[in-house]
Automatic annotation (TrEMBL):
It comes from Chryseobacterium oranimense. Residues 187-359 form the YaiO beta-barrel domain. SUPFAM superfamilies: TPR-like (SSF48452). It comes from the Bacteria. This is Outer membrane protein, YaiO family. Gene3D superfamilies: Tetratricopeptide repeat domain. Signal peptide: none annotated.
Length: 420
């Protein structure tokens, strides 16, 4: 009987001990379940309803139930950021920092706050700490590339982009940013471009155009001066051009260009152009502007384009619209590029209709042949060897040069650029 009572006491003791162990776990699980429910509601309020005030309130309630729930704290910091309350967001992230949190998402959220508020030094310091814990973080390397680009540290931005593409060569944002950064990684560039054109019917003589240019990157954007020599219709002519690409903000920049030639017929006497360009979210880009050419009279052309980066690809569609008293002429060109190892290395493909003022054929605009039917298709290949860039391209045109009379044109283009 005594042994039986002893066994019962022992069993009862184990039972009490088990309850004491499991009860806190059950309470903690209930707390987490309640916090998860509030967290889910907070995310719905933020992402679907854009109701940041409600989302913040729900996230705070969740943290009262589960104060050590790191994901909710990081989310709360993000929502404060979206709600344009950087001080409250910073307080949340600083508290997490004191707890020595090492989550990748914490570093991304905190650094993004500082980046969006133009505190680039603080953002870089946070990213550096994050990369020490997560050296293969694609998101942190990409954020570093963006911060360095915004802070005009283009060499460091390019290094970060290379780190992203080493992890994921198809990262759309990195490929998009690589093209923009490339324009600033060297202060100077010398280029030479040669274009050869052969006609089967329209003209008896082949055309030759050579362009020599110097590009200088300034604090406000790139400036290019270019001299062109042309041999067309067995005649020689020259043209001088000046272009600038001033940056207006993180999103916008301008194209401003002008040219002059005393050899009218081979070139327009004057050429001007202005465009507003935008680097848009989701790796889109857009341009709208005008081009003006003067031969014996003015020709005004209005242009617009939309581009999109997707993984290693760049897609672009551009139009030129030329109104006159009788009708409106249209030109359309679609371009696809496939980038290989860098922004300077790609295969390109073009297809379109009409003549654009950027082509070496723009002197044909004088006689309004651009109002007749034209089809074009071509390809190009660009590749780089350190600071040397090479390009080769070909284009085929089928043009109605007189009503109901068509001819073919074949172009070959070779280019070389040396950056320093």
């Amino acid at each position: 009987m005594i042994n039986h009572l002893t066994s019962m006491k022992t069993y009862f003791g184990y039972l009490v001990l088990l309850v004491l162990v499991l009860l806190p776990l059950q309470i903690y699980a209930q707390q987490n379940a309640s916090a998860d429910e509030l967290f889910a509601k907070a995310r719905t309020a933020a992402f679907e309803n854009k109701d940041y005030a409600t989302s913040i309130s729900l996230a705070k309630q969740a943290l009262e139930t589960a104060p050590d729930y790191t994901d909710i704290s990081i989310f709360l910091g993000r929502v404060y950021t979206w709600n344009k309350d950087p001080e409250s967001a910073r307080a949340v992230f600083e508290d997490l920092g004191r707890k020595n949190i090492k989550d990748e998402d914490y570093f991304i959220a905190y650094a993004s706050l500082e980046y969006w508020n133009d505190r680039y030094s603080e953002a870089k310091e946070i990213i550096s700490k994050g990369l020490s814990s997560h050296p293969q973080s694609e998101a942190l390397w990409l954020l570093k590339a963006k911060v360095e680009y915004a802070d005009k540290n283009y060499i460091e931005s390019e290094k970060a982009i290379k780190a992203v593409l080493a992890i994921n060569p198809k990262n759309t944002e990195a490929n998009s940013l690589a093209v923009r950064v490339h324009e600033f990684t060297y202060k100077n560039a010398l280029s030479i471009l040669y274009n050869y054109s052969h006609f089967d019917k329209q003209f008896d003589d082949d055309w030759h155009v050579v362009g020599l240019s110097y590009k200088r990157v300034t604090p406000i954007g790139a400036v290019i001066i270019r001299g062109n020599y042309a041999n067309k219709f067995a005649e020689d002519g020259t043209q001088i051009e000046l272009e600038a690409y001033p940056r207006l903000s993180k999103m916008f920049y301008l194209y401003v260009g002008g040219a002059y030639s005393n050899d009218v017929g081979l070139f327009p006497k004057y050429r001007t152009g202005v465009s507003l360009n935008a680097n848009l979210p989701k790796s889109f880009e857009a341009e709208i502007g005008y081009r003006q050419l003067y031969f014996s009279k003015n020709i005004w052309m209005y242009t617009a384009s939309v581009g999109k980066y997707y993984k290693n690809f760049w897609f672009n569609i551009r139009t030129y619209i030329t109104p006159d008293n009788k009708n409106i002429s249209h030109s359309y060109t679609g371009t696809v590029r496939y980038y290989t190892k860098s922004a300077q290395d790609y295969f390109g493909f073009q297809i379109g209709t009409g003549i654009s003022p950027e082509e070496n054929r723009n002197n044909l605009l004088e006689n309004e042949t651009f109002k007749l039917k034209t089809f074009k298709i071509g390809a190009e290949y660009n590749f780089s060897l350190k600071a040397n860039m090479f390009s080769v391209g070909t284009m085929y045109y089928n043009q109605e040069y007189l009503p109901n009379q068509k001819g073919n044109q074949f172009d070959i283009t070779l280019g070389y650029t040396r950056k320093f």
